[in-house]
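Priority: medium. Attachment 1 of 2:
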């Protein structure tokens, strides 16, 4: 008989998340791998005198959660005390934010930057009651006259800054926005302090970058926090020279090197897949090729690919719907279609540039994840995927849409035909449903993130948090997939796109393993897979969707080691 198991979990509700969504009572672990799954009696046969036996008492066991689009380094850096928390309900109004900035200014030396993130016009009282459309620089000037202030919104696609920050960025009345960006101005032509998409780069550039110590602390702190949520894997979606101007450099090449150092030292207690980010928002083929050349020199020797793997390349196509920067077929109420955020002086030139970028990355043999949200932009990206595959045939590229908010039936059909996927963000849908009713109208808002339609079309669907855009709590994500309700009002939005528990759980476990080219060794509770496990505080199937976000995570195992909770 083989050596006894190191760990046995018995008398539980084991959801394997395999293709048949098989359930079991127990499982055994040895040397970090699952060695048996089945009934309690059968699995106890693998126990020996030194085996730790854990009585689950009916609790549910899941594969370790895989948050397949989570900016781990940026999330770690953008949490207090390193940044102001401006998420709802921490703040409910422009006045609340001004008060928080004023308090920070009193504790900050003159000239030093004050940063924060998370504000959302859909939850600011002055914007909701119609007295204000947006905040502006004057609000922050009064609160912090001696400090540059940069407050990034919840989507990370819009920044609200004060006059000192505009001066530091060299932005004034005569400044022209960069390609793929917008500088909001008042009737006199002066900047209001709202910068969108690629225009944010100018103000992020002078903000001091995190040093190696802070980067390591941000990543390891994020991993510990994720363990408390049962999350053991995540995709870091975009690190490289194209990220130097995003989130104050949190998506830059320095973060990639810190991940590599942690992995080599055996200090990365998560399975992290990285998408490289060679080109910035507003960039083009020239930036892409230069960035790829720079990243080609990044050393990957001495790295366990089951801890850290470079999976592919991320590109930006357009903005985000709440900011009316997603590129749409039908105009927004009030006018405008949004735009692509790539190099080009006109929409047709931008579309051609984006198509060329996708072709270049595909031809180089990389997986591609494209940030794309508007239906017109999505059709452009998916058609470019298909054209690249036709020009440079590859057997298993696994390209995917990142977000895919308004994926069309045409795009879903093309994705399915090529075996490509979509990575959606149900907690963002929950957060912004009511705002989107105003931005695009209730009917279009209901079609946002068509999960059921994608699955019906045969498209592989992953679900993720996009933290720090939303908190990386998969339980809220699953509840949102089951309910399709609004955070603010509880109103249903697009109920026809609801899915069942099986599809929702697999979107956070088995399907991301496929996205990661790792389905042979992680993502399900099966013999031979890594023993990354999430033990809940109750039985998942007996928990109502509304109560699911409050269901505790009692235990988390990584490589068979307990990393959260106590036996």
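Attachment 2 of 2:
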């Amino acid at each position: 008989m083989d050596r006894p198991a190191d760990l046995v979990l018995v008398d539980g509700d084991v959801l394997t998340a395999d293709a048949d969504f098989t359930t079991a009572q127990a499982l055994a672990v040895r040397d970090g791998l699952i060695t048996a799954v089945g009934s309690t009696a059968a699995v106890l046969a693998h126990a020996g005198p030194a085996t730790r036996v854990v009585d689950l008492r009916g609790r549910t066991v899941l594969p370790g959660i895989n948050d397949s689009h989570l900016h781990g380094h940026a999330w770690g850096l953008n949490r207090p005390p390193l940044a102001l928390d401006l998420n709802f309900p921490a703040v409910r109004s422009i006045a609340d934010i001004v008060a928080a900035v004023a308090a920070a200014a009193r504790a900050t030396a003159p000239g030093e930057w004050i940063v924060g993130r998370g504000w959302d016009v859909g939850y600011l009282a002055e914007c909701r009651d119609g007295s204000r459309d947006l905040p502006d620089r004057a609000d922050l000037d009064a609160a912090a006259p001696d400090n540059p202030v940069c407050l990034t919104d919840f989507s990370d696609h819009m920044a609200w800054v004060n006059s000192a920050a505009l001066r530091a960025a060299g932005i004034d009345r005569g400044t022209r926005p960069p390609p793929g960006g917008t500088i909001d101005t008042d009737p006199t032509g002066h900047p209001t302090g709202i910068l969108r998409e690629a225009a944010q780069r100018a103000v992020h550039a002078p903000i001091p970058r995190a040093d190696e110590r802070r980067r390591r602390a941000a990543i390891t702190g994020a991993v510990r926090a994720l363990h408390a949520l049962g999350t053991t894997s995540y995709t870091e979606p975009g690190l490289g020279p194209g990220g130097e101007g995003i989130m104050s450099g949190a998506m830059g090449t320095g973060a990639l090197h810190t991940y590599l150092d942690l992995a080599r030292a055996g200090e990365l207690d998560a399975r992290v897949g990285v998408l490289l980010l060679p080109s910035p928002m507003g960039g083009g083929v020239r930036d892409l090729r230069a960035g790829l050349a720079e990243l080609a020199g990044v050393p990957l020797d001495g790295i366990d690919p089951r801890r850290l793997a470079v999976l592919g390349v991320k590109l930006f196509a357009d903005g985000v719907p709440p900011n009316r920067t997603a590129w749409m077929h039908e105009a927004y109420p009030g006018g405008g279609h949004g735009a692509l955020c790539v190099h080009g002086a006109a929409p047709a030139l931008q579309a051609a540039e984006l198509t060329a970028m996708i072709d270049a990355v595909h031809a180089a043999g990389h997986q591609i994840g494209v940030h794309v949200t508007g239906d017109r932009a999505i059709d452009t990206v998916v058609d470019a995927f298909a054209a690249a595959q036709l020009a440079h045939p590859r057997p298993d590229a696994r390209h995917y849409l990142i977000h895919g908010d308004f994926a069309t039936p045409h795009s879903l059909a093309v994705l399915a035909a090529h075996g490509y996927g979509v990575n959606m963000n149900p907690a963002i849908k929950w957060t912004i449903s009511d705002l989107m009713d105003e931005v695009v109208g209730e009917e279009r808002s209901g079609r946002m993130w068509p999960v059921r339609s994608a699955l019906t079309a045969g498209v592989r669907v992953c679900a993720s948090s996009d933290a720090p855009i939303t908190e990386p709590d998969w339980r809220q994500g699953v509840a949102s997939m089951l309910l399709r309700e609004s955070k603010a009002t509880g109103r249903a939005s697009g109920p026809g796109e609801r899915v069942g528990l099986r599809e929702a759980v697999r979107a956070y476990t088995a399907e991301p393993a496929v996205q990661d080219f790792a389905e042979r060794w992680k993502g399900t509770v099966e013999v031979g897979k890594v023993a990354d496990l999430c033990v809940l505080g109750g039985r998942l199937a007996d928990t109502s969707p509304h109560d699911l976000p409050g269901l505790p995570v009692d235990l988390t195992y990584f490589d068979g080691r307990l990393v959260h909770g106590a036996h």
